[in-house]
Predict the 3D structure of the following.
Amino acid sequence: MTDIIGSLLVLAGAIFLFSAGLGLIRMPDAYTRIQAGTKASTLGNLLVLAGLAVYHPGWTFKLLLIGYFVLLSNPISSHALSRAAHALRTPFVTSTTVDALAEEEEKHGKRIPS
């Protein structure tokens, strides 16, 4: 029974990781690609790690540490990439109507630190 649960978790993680890759190809601009890749890959990685923990209970502590690192590093790195893209004036898709960061920079007359 644990083999089936572990396999289903790994399969679900693989589906989310596939959707992250698909999002990187299909999304129209850099900002939405970053968002799609980060959210789906974070969940996909955690599901794969959970599946591995079911398969190998002795690895659970190490897998929890890896999961913690994934939860910590993925959002921070995507935020840094998005801020760098914005600072380089990477264009938005034409349907984007609001640039809240640019509005705040104009309001304060300076660049807002990350």
